[in-house]
Specification:
The protein has 16 helices and 24 strands. The strands form five sheets. It has an eight-stranded parallel barrel, surrounded by five helices. A five-stranded antiparallel beta sheet has the order 5-6-7-8-9, with helices on one face. The chain is globular and about 80 Å long.
Length: 552
Protein backbone atom coordinates (compact mmCIF):
# COMPACT_ATOMS: atom_id res chain seq x y z
CA UNK A 1 0.00 0.00 0.00
CA UNK A 2 2.83 2.42 0.85
CA UNK A 3 4.60 1.44 -2.38
CA UNK A 4 1.50 2.25 -4.42
CA UNK A 5 1.18 5.65 -2.73
CA UNK A 6 4.84 6.36 -3.47
CA UNK A 7 4.40 5.42 -7.16
CA UNK A 8 1.27 7.54 -7.43
CA UNK A 9 3.09 10.50 -5.91
CA UNK A 10 5.99 10.14 -8.35
CA UNK A 11 3.54 9.96 -11.25
CA UNK A 12 1.93 13.22 -10.15
CA UNK A 13 5.37 14.87 -9.91
CA UNK A 14 6.34 13.66 -13.40
CA UNK A 15 3.09 14.87 -14.88
CA UNK A 16 3.65 18.30 -13.33
CA UNK A 17 7.24 18.71 -14.57
CA UNK A 18 6.37 20.18 -17.99
CA UNK A 19 4.18 22.75 -16.31
CA UNK A 20 6.78 23.60 -13.73
CA UNK A 21 9.60 24.06 -16.26
CA UNK A 22 7.60 25.74 -19.02
CA UNK A 23 8.55 29.19 -17.78
CA UNK A 24 12.22 28.30 -17.61
CA UNK A 25 12.19 26.86 -21.11
CA UNK A 26 10.40 29.88 -22.52
CA UNK A 27 13.50 32.00 -22.81
CA UNK A 28 13.09 35.64 -23.78
CA UNK A 29 12.38 36.11 -27.47
CA UNK A 30 15.55 37.13 -29.27
CA UNK A 31 15.74 40.73 -30.46
CA UNK A 32 15.47 41.03 -34.24
CA UNK A 33 16.30 43.95 -36.52
CA UNK A 34 15.46 45.16 -39.99
CA UNK A 35 16.52 48.10 -42.14
CA UNK A 36 13.97 49.32 -44.70
CA UNK A 37 12.39 45.86 -44.73
CA UNK A 38 15.66 43.88 -44.92
CA UNK A 39 16.53 41.65 -41.96
CA UNK A 40 19.84 42.42 -40.27
CA UNK A 41 21.90 39.81 -38.45
CA UNK A 42 25.12 39.98 -36.50
CA UNK A 43 27.53 37.42 -35.12
CA UNK A 44 26.28 37.95 -31.53
CA UNK A 45 22.60 38.39 -30.59
CA UNK A 46 21.53 41.89 -29.46
CA UNK A 47 20.74 42.36 -25.78
CA UNK A 48 19.36 45.03 -23.45
CA UNK A 49 21.53 46.42 -20.65
CA UNK A 50 20.42 47.11 -17.09
CA UNK A 51 20.14 50.79 -18.07
CA UNK A 52 17.62 49.86 -20.80
CA UNK A 53 19.96 50.31 -23.78
CA UNK A 54 19.95 47.87 -26.71
CA UNK A 55 23.43 46.73 -27.74
CA UNK A 56 24.42 45.19 -31.09
CA UNK A 57 27.76 43.95 -32.49
CA UNK A 58 29.76 46.34 -34.66
CA UNK A 59 29.58 43.80 -37.47
CA UNK A 60 25.91 44.69 -37.79
CA UNK A 61 26.82 48.38 -38.05
CA UNK A 62 29.40 47.77 -40.78
CA UNK A 63 27.52 45.17 -42.81
CA UNK A 64 23.91 46.14 -42.13
CA UNK A 65 24.14 49.93 -41.98
CA UNK A 66 27.02 50.08 -44.48
CA UNK A 67 29.07 52.28 -42.19
CA UNK A 68 32.83 52.30 -41.83
CA UNK A 69 33.90 50.72 -38.54
CA UNK A 70 37.33 50.46 -36.94
CA UNK A 71 38.37 49.19 -33.49
CA UNK A 72 41.40 50.38 -31.56
CA UNK A 73 42.25 47.65 -29.05
CA UNK A 74 44.71 49.72 -27.02
CA UNK A 75 42.26 52.58 -26.37
CA UNK A 76 39.17 50.34 -26.63
CA UNK A 77 37.60 52.88 -28.98
CA UNK A 78 35.33 52.15 -31.90
CA UNK A 79 35.15 54.71 -34.72
CA UNK A 80 32.07 54.69 -36.96
CA UNK A 81 31.94 56.75 -40.14
CA UNK A 82 29.17 57.30 -42.64
CA UNK A 83 29.23 60.25 -45.00
CA UNK A 84 30.34 63.27 -42.99
CA UNK A 85 29.42 61.70 -39.65
CA UNK A 86 32.24 60.45 -37.42
CA UNK A 87 31.29 58.76 -34.14
CA UNK A 88 33.81 57.65 -31.51
CA UNK A 89 32.73 55.50 -28.56
CA UNK A 90 35.15 54.28 -25.90
CA UNK A 91 34.60 51.42 -23.46
CA UNK A 92 34.11 52.64 -19.89
CA UNK A 93 33.40 56.23 -21.00
CA UNK A 94 29.85 57.54 -20.80
CA UNK A 95 30.36 60.07 -23.54
CA UNK A 96 30.77 59.78 -27.28
CA UNK A 97 32.40 62.11 -29.75
CA UNK A 98 30.12 63.11 -32.60
CA UNK A 99 32.18 65.07 -35.11
CA UNK A 100 34.47 65.92 -32.15
CA UNK A 101 31.57 67.23 -30.03
CA UNK A 102 31.08 65.44 -26.71
CA UNK A 103 27.66 63.78 -26.22
CA UNK A 104 26.51 62.04 -23.02
CA UNK A 105 25.63 58.32 -23.12
CA UNK A 106 23.94 55.94 -20.72
CA UNK A 107 26.03 53.07 -22.08
CA UNK A 108 29.02 53.18 -24.41
CA UNK A 109 31.03 50.26 -25.82
CA UNK A 110 30.80 46.83 -24.17
CA UNK A 111 32.63 43.59 -24.89
CA UNK A 112 30.51 40.42 -24.91
CA UNK A 113 31.54 36.96 -26.09
CA UNK A 114 34.65 38.53 -27.54
CA UNK A 115 32.61 40.92 -29.68
CA UNK A 116 32.48 44.71 -29.55
CA UNK A 117 28.91 45.88 -28.84
CA UNK A 118 27.50 49.40 -29.35
CA UNK A 119 24.13 51.10 -28.56
CA UNK A 120 22.01 50.67 -31.69
CA UNK A 121 19.61 53.57 -31.20
CA UNK A 122 22.34 56.11 -30.51
CA UNK A 123 24.45 55.02 -33.47
CA UNK A 124 21.49 54.71 -35.85
CA UNK A 125 20.00 58.08 -35.07
CA UNK A 126 23.36 59.78 -35.29
CA UNK A 127 23.63 58.31 -38.78
CA UNK A 128 20.23 59.75 -39.72
CA UNK A 129 17.99 56.69 -39.30
CA UNK A 130 14.67 56.49 -37.47
CA UNK A 131 14.36 53.71 -34.89
CA UNK A 132 11.15 51.96 -33.82
CA UNK A 133 10.84 49.31 -31.11
CA UNK A 134 8.05 46.72 -30.94
CA UNK A 135 7.90 45.56 -27.33
CA UNK A 136 5.56 42.66 -28.04
CA UNK A 137 7.79 41.07 -30.69
CA UNK A 138 11.10 42.56 -29.48
CA UNK A 139 11.72 43.80 -32.99
CA UNK A 140 13.68 46.90 -34.01
CA UNK A 141 12.81 48.64 -37.27
CA UNK A 142 15.36 51.03 -38.78
CA UNK A 143 14.10 53.44 -41.42
CA UNK A 144 16.29 55.55 -43.68
CA UNK A 145 15.32 58.52 -45.80
CA UNK A 146 12.59 61.03 -45.01
CA UNK A 147 9.63 58.70 -44.59
CA UNK A 148 7.40 59.30 -41.59
CA UNK A 149 6.52 55.97 -39.97
CA UNK A 150 3.49 55.57 -37.73
CA UNK A 151 4.62 53.20 -34.96
CA UNK A 152 1.88 51.23 -33.23
CA UNK A 153 3.88 49.68 -30.41
CA UNK A 154 6.00 51.16 -27.61
CA UNK A 155 9.42 52.06 -28.99
CA UNK A 156 12.96 52.27 -27.95
CA UNK A 157 14.86 50.62 -25.12
CA UNK A 158 17.66 53.14 -25.83
CA UNK A 159 18.32 56.73 -24.90
CA UNK A 160 19.42 58.55 -28.06
CA UNK A 161 20.69 62.05 -28.69
CA UNK A 162 19.64 64.46 -31.41
CA UNK A 163 20.61 63.20 -34.87
CA UNK A 164 23.19 65.33 -36.63
CA UNK A 165 23.04 66.52 -40.23
CA UNK A 166 20.44 64.20 -41.78
CA UNK A 167 18.88 65.23 -45.06
CA UNK A 168 16.09 67.80 -44.83
CA UNK A 169 12.74 66.21 -45.76
CA UNK A 170 10.73 67.75 -48.56
CA UNK A 171 8.20 70.34 -47.34
CA UNK A 172 4.64 69.19 -46.91
CA UNK A 173 1.77 70.95 -48.63
CA UNK A 174 -0.60 70.33 -45.74
CA UNK A 175 -2.54 73.37 -44.49
CA UNK A 176 -2.09 74.68 -40.97
CA UNK A 177 -4.74 72.99 -38.80
CA UNK A 178 -7.55 74.95 -37.22
CA UNK A 179 -7.77 73.79 -33.64
CA UNK A 180 -11.27 73.44 -32.20
CA UNK A 181 -12.16 75.12 -28.95
CA UNK A 182 -13.59 73.88 -25.67
CA UNK A 183 -15.96 70.96 -25.64
CA UNK A 184 -14.41 69.20 -28.66
CA UNK A 185 -11.95 66.39 -29.21
CA UNK A 186 -8.59 66.88 -27.52
CA UNK A 187 -7.28 69.02 -30.36
CA UNK A 188 -4.10 70.58 -28.99
CA UNK A 189 -1.14 68.21 -29.07
CA UNK A 190 1.70 70.60 -28.35
CA UNK A 191 5.34 70.26 -27.37
CA UNK A 192 7.62 72.86 -25.83
CA UNK A 193 10.97 73.31 -27.60
CA UNK A 194 13.51 74.90 -25.23
CA UNK A 195 16.38 76.92 -26.62
CA UNK A 196 17.82 78.12 -23.29
CA UNK A 197 21.07 76.25 -22.57
CA UNK A 198 20.55 74.57 -26.01
CA UNK A 199 18.27 72.06 -24.30
CA UNK A 200 16.16 71.00 -27.30
CA UNK A 201 17.43 73.12 -30.17
CA UNK A 202 19.87 74.12 -31.55
CA UNK A 203 22.59 71.72 -30.43
CA UNK A 204 25.79 73.23 -29.08
CA UNK A 205 27.73 71.55 -31.90
CA UNK A 206 25.68 73.51 -34.44
CA UNK A 207 26.74 76.92 -33.09
CA UNK A 208 27.10 79.33 -35.99
CA UNK A 209 26.18 76.68 -38.57
CA UNK A 210 22.92 77.81 -40.16
CA UNK A 211 22.44 74.76 -42.39
CA UNK A 212 23.02 72.36 -39.55
CA UNK A 213 20.56 74.20 -37.30
CA UNK A 214 17.93 74.08 -40.02
CA UNK A 215 18.49 70.36 -40.50
CA UNK A 216 18.24 69.67 -36.78
CA UNK A 217 15.00 71.61 -36.50
CA UNK A 218 13.52 69.86 -39.55
CA UNK A 219 14.30 66.45 -38.05
CA UNK A 220 12.84 67.47 -34.69
CA UNK A 221 9.61 68.62 -36.34
CA UNK A 222 9.36 65.45 -38.40
CA UNK A 223 9.74 63.31 -35.31
CA UNK A 224 7.11 65.27 -33.43
CA UNK A 225 4.70 65.12 -36.35
CA UNK A 226 5.26 61.36 -36.74
CA UNK A 227 4.19 60.91 -33.12
CA UNK A 228 1.06 62.98 -33.65
CA UNK A 229 1.91 66.44 -32.35
CA UNK A 230 0.26 69.30 -34.23
CA UNK A 231 1.83 72.35 -32.56
CA UNK A 232 5.19 73.49 -31.26
CA UNK A 233 5.91 76.16 -28.66
CA UNK A 234 9.40 77.41 -29.44
CA UNK A 235 11.36 79.58 -27.03
CA UNK A 236 12.24 82.64 -29.13
CA UNK A 237 13.21 84.88 -26.18
CA UNK A 238 15.08 82.72 -23.65
CA UNK A 239 16.88 85.48 -21.68
CA UNK A 240 16.12 89.01 -22.93
CA UNK A 241 17.64 87.96 -26.25
CA UNK A 242 16.15 86.81 -29.51
CA UNK A 243 16.12 84.08 -32.12
CA UNK A 244 15.15 86.65 -34.74
CA UNK A 245 16.62 89.99 -35.88
CA UNK A 246 15.43 92.44 -33.23
CA UNK A 247 15.84 96.18 -32.93
CA UNK A 248 15.47 95.91 -29.16
CA UNK A 249 17.38 92.79 -28.13
CA UNK A 250 20.68 91.12 -29.00
CA UNK A 251 20.89 87.84 -30.89
CA UNK A 252 20.72 84.88 -28.50
CA UNK A 253 24.02 83.28 -27.59
CA UNK A 254 22.39 79.89 -27.99
CA UNK A 255 22.62 80.35 -31.78
CA UNK A 256 26.33 81.05 -32.09
CA UNK A 257 27.85 80.75 -28.62
CA UNK A 258 28.16 84.55 -28.38
CA UNK A 259 25.35 86.91 -27.49
CA UNK A 260 24.84 89.55 -30.15
CA UNK A 261 26.49 87.59 -32.96
CA UNK A 262 24.44 87.32 -36.15
CA UNK A 263 23.80 83.65 -37.01
CA UNK A 264 23.65 84.46 -40.74
CA UNK A 265 19.94 83.75 -41.18
CA UNK A 266 16.57 84.42 -39.59
CA UNK A 267 15.89 81.33 -37.42
CA UNK A 268 12.34 82.38 -36.56
CA UNK A 269 11.35 82.88 -40.20
CA UNK A 270 12.77 79.44 -41.02
CA UNK A 271 11.06 77.74 -38.08
CA UNK A 272 7.63 79.25 -38.74
CA UNK A 273 7.81 78.21 -42.40
CA UNK A 274 9.07 74.73 -41.52
CA UNK A 275 6.22 74.17 -39.05
CA UNK A 276 3.56 75.41 -41.46
CA UNK A 277 4.95 73.29 -44.30
CA UNK A 278 4.27 70.27 -42.09
CA UNK A 279 0.77 71.37 -41.12
CA UNK A 280 1.85 72.26 -37.58
CA UNK A 281 1.07 75.38 -35.59
CA UNK A 282 3.95 77.58 -34.43
CA UNK A 283 3.63 79.42 -31.13
CA UNK A 284 6.35 81.91 -30.19
CA UNK A 285 7.30 81.30 -26.56
CA UNK A 286 8.66 84.27 -24.59
CA UNK A 287 10.37 84.30 -21.23
CA UNK A 288 9.36 87.85 -20.35
CA UNK A 289 11.32 89.00 -17.29
CA UNK A 290 14.52 86.93 -17.19
CA UNK A 291 17.47 89.12 -18.20
CA UNK A 292 20.30 86.59 -17.76
CA UNK A 293 20.71 83.07 -16.40
CA UNK A 294 23.54 84.18 -14.08
CA UNK A 295 24.64 87.40 -12.39
CA UNK A 296 27.59 88.18 -14.66
CA UNK A 297 27.25 90.79 -17.40
CA UNK A 298 30.67 90.17 -18.95
CA UNK A 299 29.32 87.93 -21.70
CA UNK A 300 26.33 90.11 -22.54
CA UNK A 301 26.10 92.20 -25.68
CA UNK A 302 26.26 95.98 -25.41
CA UNK A 303 22.55 96.30 -26.20
CA UNK A 304 21.53 93.76 -23.57
CA UNK A 305 18.88 95.23 -21.29
CA UNK A 306 21.18 94.53 -18.33
CA UNK A 307 23.76 96.94 -19.80
CA UNK A 308 21.45 99.38 -21.57
CA UNK A 309 19.09 99.80 -18.58
CA UNK A 310 20.89 98.67 -15.41
CA UNK A 311 18.32 100.49 -13.24
CA UNK A 312 15.68 98.05 -14.49
CA UNK A 313 17.64 94.99 -13.31
CA UNK A 314 17.31 93.09 -10.03
CA UNK A 315 19.87 90.46 -9.00
CA UNK A 316 17.81 87.75 -7.32
CA UNK A 317 19.30 84.37 -6.48
CA UNK A 318 22.37 85.10 -8.65
CA UNK A 319 20.21 85.62 -11.73
CA UNK A 320 19.30 88.89 -13.39
CA UNK A 321 15.64 89.86 -13.76
CA UNK A 322 13.87 92.79 -15.36
CA UNK A 323 11.86 94.51 -12.63
CA UNK A 324 8.15 94.08 -13.45
CA UNK A 325 7.37 97.11 -11.26
CA UNK A 326 8.83 99.57 -13.79
CA UNK A 327 6.22 100.47 -16.44
CA UNK A 328 8.83 101.44 -19.05
CA UNK A 329 10.53 98.08 -18.65
CA UNK A 330 7.25 96.22 -19.07
CA UNK A 331 6.49 98.20 -22.21
CA UNK A 332 9.84 97.37 -23.79
CA UNK A 333 9.16 93.66 -23.22
CA UNK A 334 5.76 94.09 -24.87
CA UNK A 335 7.47 95.86 -27.77
CA UNK A 336 9.75 92.86 -28.29
CA UNK A 337 6.72 90.57 -28.43
CA UNK A 338 5.01 92.87 -30.92
CA UNK A 339 8.08 92.71 -33.19
CA UNK A 340 7.24 89.05 -33.66
CA UNK A 341 3.47 89.52 -33.95
CA UNK A 342 3.90 92.18 -36.63
CA UNK A 343 6.79 90.58 -38.48
CA UNK A 344 6.01 86.85 -38.53
CA UNK A 345 3.11 84.55 -39.34
CA UNK A 346 3.03 82.99 -35.87
CA UNK A 347 -0.09 81.19 -34.69
CA UNK A 348 0.31 82.24 -31.10
CA UNK A 349 2.19 84.15 -28.42
CA UNK A 350 3.03 82.10 -25.35
CA UNK A 351 4.39 83.21 -21.95
CA UNK A 352 5.87 80.83 -19.40
CA UNK A 353 5.71 81.12 -15.61
CA UNK A 354 8.72 83.39 -15.10
CA UNK A 355 7.14 86.47 -13.57
CA UNK A 356 8.54 87.27 -10.13
CA UNK A 357 11.05 84.62 -8.99
CA UNK A 358 9.87 82.47 -6.06
CA UNK A 359 11.66 81.66 -2.79
CA UNK A 360 14.24 84.41 -3.23
CA UNK A 361 14.54 88.02 -2.07
CA UNK A 362 13.60 90.54 -4.75
CA UNK A 363 14.86 94.08 -4.14
CA UNK A 364 12.07 96.30 -5.47
CA UNK A 365 11.38 98.69 -2.59
CA UNK A 366 12.45 101.71 -4.64
CA UNK A 367 10.19 100.74 -7.53
CA UNK A 368 7.30 100.13 -5.14
CA UNK A 369 7.59 103.71 -3.89
CA UNK A 370 8.24 105.30 -7.28
CA UNK A 371 5.67 103.45 -9.40
CA UNK A 372 2.53 103.01 -7.33
CA UNK A 373 -0.03 105.46 -8.75
CA UNK A 374 -2.93 103.34 -7.45
CA UNK A 375 -1.62 103.61 -3.90
CA UNK A 376 -1.71 99.85 -3.35
CA UNK A 377 -0.91 99.22 0.31
CA UNK A 378 0.40 95.64 0.10
CA UNK A 379 3.57 95.06 -1.87
CA UNK A 380 2.28 91.60 -2.80
CA UNK A 381 -0.89 93.12 -4.26
CA UNK A 382 1.23 95.73 -6.05
CA UNK A 383 3.38 93.03 -7.60
CA UNK A 384 0.30 91.14 -8.75
CA UNK A 385 -1.08 94.34 -10.22
CA UNK A 386 2.15 94.86 -12.17
CA UNK A 387 1.81 91.42 -13.73
CA UNK A 388 -1.91 91.92 -14.31
CA UNK A 389 -1.24 95.14 -16.21
CA UNK A 390 1.43 93.43 -18.29
CA UNK A 391 -0.84 90.49 -19.15
CA UNK A 392 -3.83 92.71 -19.95
CA UNK A 393 -1.96 95.30 -22.01
CA UNK A 394 0.01 92.73 -23.99
CA UNK A 395 -3.17 90.87 -24.88
CA UNK A 396 -4.82 94.07 -26.05
CA UNK A 397 -1.84 94.98 -28.25
CA UNK A 398 -1.67 91.51 -29.80
CA UNK A 399 -5.37 91.32 -30.60
CA UNK A 400 -5.50 94.88 -31.91
CA UNK A 401 -2.84 94.01 -34.48
CA UNK A 402 -3.71 90.37 -35.23
CA UNK A 403 -6.95 89.16 -33.64
CA UNK A 404 -6.32 85.64 -34.95
CA UNK A 405 -3.13 85.16 -32.92
CA UNK A 406 -3.71 82.92 -29.90
CA UNK A 407 -2.41 84.42 -26.65
CA UNK A 408 -1.83 82.20 -23.65
CA UNK A 409 0.21 81.57 -20.53
CA UNK A 410 1.51 78.45 -18.75
CA UNK A 411 1.50 79.30 -15.03
CA UNK A 412 2.79 77.17 -12.19
CA UNK A 413 0.31 74.33 -11.66
CA UNK A 414 -0.90 75.36 -8.20
CA UNK A 415 -2.72 78.69 -8.03
CA UNK A 416 -3.21 78.59 -4.24
CA UNK A 417 -3.49 75.85 -1.64
CA UNK A 418 -6.90 75.42 -0.01
CA UNK A 419 -5.30 75.84 3.43
CA UNK A 420 -4.45 79.44 2.49
CA UNK A 421 -7.54 80.12 0.37
CA UNK A 422 -10.68 77.97 0.64
CA UNK A 423 -11.22 78.41 -3.10
CA UNK A 424 -7.78 77.02 -3.88
CA UNK A 425 -6.89 73.45 -4.81
CA UNK A 426 -6.67 70.46 -2.46
CA UNK A 427 -2.88 70.60 -2.45
CA UNK A 428 -0.01 71.29 -0.08
CA UNK A 429 2.51 72.76 -2.50
CA UNK A 430 5.42 74.71 -1.07
CA UNK A 431 5.04 77.34 -3.80
CA UNK A 432 1.96 78.81 -5.46
CA UNK A 433 1.50 81.00 -8.51
CA UNK A 434 -0.51 83.64 -6.64
CA UNK A 435 1.57 83.94 -3.46
CA UNK A 436 5.11 83.34 -4.72
CA UNK A 437 5.18 84.32 -8.41
CA UNK A 438 2.51 87.00 -8.02
CA UNK A 439 0.57 85.56 -10.93
CA UNK A 440 -3.15 86.18 -10.38
CA UNK A 441 -4.21 83.65 -13.00
CA UNK A 442 -7.82 83.59 -11.81
CA UNK A 443 -8.21 87.25 -12.76
CA UNK A 444 -6.68 86.67 -16.21
CA UNK A 445 -9.22 83.91 -16.83
CA UNK A 446 -12.29 85.66 -15.43
CA UNK A 447 -11.48 88.86 -17.31
CA UNK A 448 -10.81 86.95 -20.57
CA UNK A 449 -7.44 88.65 -20.94
CA UNK A 450 -5.96 85.44 -22.37
CA UNK A 451 -7.18 82.96 -24.97
CA UNK A 452 -5.97 79.87 -23.13
CA UNK A 453 -4.26 78.81 -19.94
CA UNK A 454 -1.85 75.87 -19.77
CA UNK A 455 -1.05 75.17 -16.09
CA UNK A 456 2.12 73.18 -15.59
CA UNK A 457 0.74 70.18 -13.72
CA UNK A 458 4.07 68.40 -13.43
CA UNK A 459 3.11 65.84 -10.79
CA UNK A 460 1.86 62.26 -10.92
CA UNK A 461 -1.57 60.85 -10.24
CA UNK A 462 -0.29 59.46 -6.93
CA UNK A 463 1.68 62.46 -5.60
CA UNK A 464 -0.44 63.45 -2.61
CA UNK A 465 1.14 66.88 -2.12
CA UNK A 466 -0.13 68.03 -5.51
CA UNK A 467 -2.02 65.28 -7.31
CA UNK A 468 -2.46 65.58 -11.05
CA UNK A 469 -6.14 64.62 -11.05
CA UNK A 470 -7.07 67.02 -8.26
CA UNK A 471 -5.37 69.88 -10.06
CA UNK A 472 -7.02 69.10 -13.38
CA UNK A 473 -10.36 69.10 -11.53
CA UNK A 474 -9.57 72.52 -10.06
CA UNK A 475 -8.47 74.16 -13.31
CA UNK A 476 -11.51 72.80 -15.14
CA UNK A 477 -13.74 74.64 -12.67
CA UNK A 478 -11.71 77.82 -13.16
CA UNK A 479 -12.37 77.97 -16.91
CA UNK A 480 -16.02 76.91 -16.72
CA UNK A 481 -18.29 79.60 -18.13
CA UNK A 482 -15.42 81.53 -19.75
CA UNK A 483 -14.05 81.73 -23.28
CA UNK A 484 -10.60 80.67 -22.07
CA UNK A 485 -9.42 77.28 -23.32
CA UNK A 486 -7.65 74.88 -20.97
CA UNK A 487 -4.57 72.98 -22.08
CA UNK A 488 -2.72 70.88 -19.51
CA UNK A 489 1.06 71.17 -19.24
CA UNK A 490 2.54 67.69 -18.72
CA UNK A 491 5.97 66.62 -17.50
CA UNK A 492 7.36 64.32 -20.17
CA UNK A 493 10.82 65.23 -18.84
CA UNK A 494 10.16 63.25 -15.67
CA UNK A 495 9.51 59.95 -17.43
CA UNK A 496 12.47 57.65 -16.85
CA UNK A 497 14.47 60.34 -15.02
CA UNK A 498 16.85 58.84 -12.45
CA UNK A 499 15.74 61.30 -9.76
CA UNK A 500 12.07 60.34 -10.06
CA UNK A 501 10.16 57.68 -8.15
CA UNK A 502 8.58 54.50 -9.47
CA UNK A 503 5.44 56.12 -10.86
CA UNK A 504 7.57 57.93 -13.45
CA UNK A 505 9.56 54.85 -14.48
CA UNK A 506 7.07 54.13 -17.24
CA UNK A 507 5.54 56.10 -20.08
CA UNK A 508 2.14 54.93 -18.85
CA UNK A 509 2.03 57.80 -16.33
CA UNK A 510 1.64 60.31 -19.18
CA UNK A 511 -0.91 58.11 -20.97
CA UNK A 512 -2.98 57.72 -17.81
CA UNK A 513 -2.95 61.49 -17.38
CA UNK A 514 -4.17 61.96 -20.95
CA UNK A 515 -6.95 59.48 -20.30
CA UNK A 516 -7.93 61.39 -17.18
CA UNK A 517 -8.16 64.59 -19.25
CA UNK A 518 -10.82 62.87 -21.37
CA UNK A 519 -13.26 63.23 -18.47
CA UNK A 520 -13.69 66.90 -19.23
CA UNK A 521 -14.86 68.70 -22.36
CA UNK A 522 -13.12 71.77 -20.94
CA UNK A 523 -9.70 70.18 -21.43
CA UNK A 524 -8.97 71.05 -25.05
CA UNK A 525 -5.58 69.32 -25.22
CA UNK A 526 -2.14 69.36 -23.67
CA UNK A 527 1.39 70.70 -24.10
CA UNK A 528 4.33 68.52 -23.10
CA UNK A 529 7.69 69.55 -21.72
CA UNK A 530 10.08 68.94 -23.47
CA UNK A 531 10.39 67.91 -27.13
CA UNK A 532 13.70 66.06 -26.79
CA UNK A 533 12.46 64.13 -23.79
CA UNK A 534 9.72 62.69 -25.98
CA UNK A 535 11.25 62.00 -29.40
CA UNK A 536 15.00 61.97 -28.70
CA UNK A 537 15.51 60.57 -25.21
CA UNK A 538 12.25 58.59 -25.69
CA UNK A 539 12.21 56.84 -22.28
CA UNK A 540 10.37 53.49 -22.23
CA UNK A 541 9.12 54.10 -25.77
CA UNK A 542 7.13 57.18 -24.74
CA UNK A 543 6.94 58.51 -28.29
CA UNK A 544 5.24 55.39 -29.61
CA UNK A 545 2.94 55.15 -26.62
CA UNK A 546 1.81 58.66 -27.48
CA UNK A 547 1.42 57.77 -31.16
CA UNK A 548 -0.77 54.83 -30.25
CA UNK A 549 -2.86 57.02 -27.92
CA UNK A 550 -3.19 59.90 -30.41
CA UNK A 551 -4.32 57.54 -33.18
CA UNK A 552 -6.81 55.57 -31.09
Amino acid sequence: MNYRKWMLGMLVVLLCLPLGFSGAKAAAVQITLELDGTTLTGDVPPYITSSNVTMVPISLISQGLKAGVSWNQSSKTVTITRGEQILKLTSGTKTALVNEASVALDTSVQIKQGRVMVPIRFVSEQLGLQVLWNQATRHITLISGSSEPQPQQPSGPDTPTLPEEPSVPEPSSQPVPTLPGNGTAKAMKGAWISTVFNLDWPSTSSAGKADKQKQEFAVLLDKLKAVGFNAVYVQVRPSADSLYPSELMPWSKFLTGTQGKNPGYDPLAYMVAAAHERGMEFHAWFNPFRAATDASTSGLASNSVAKAHPSWIVNAGSKLYINPGIPEARQEIMDTVMEVVKGYDVDGVHLDDYFYPSNVAFADDAAYKAYNPKGIVSKGDWRRDNINEFVRQLGEQIHNVKPSVSYGISPFGVWRNSKVDSTGSDTKAGVSAYDDMYADVRTWIKQDWIDYVAPQIYWSLSFETARYDKLVDWWVKEVEGTDVKLYIGQAAYKVGASDQKAEWQSGQQIINQLKYNEKYKEVAGSIMFRANDIVVRDPFGLSSLLTFYFQS
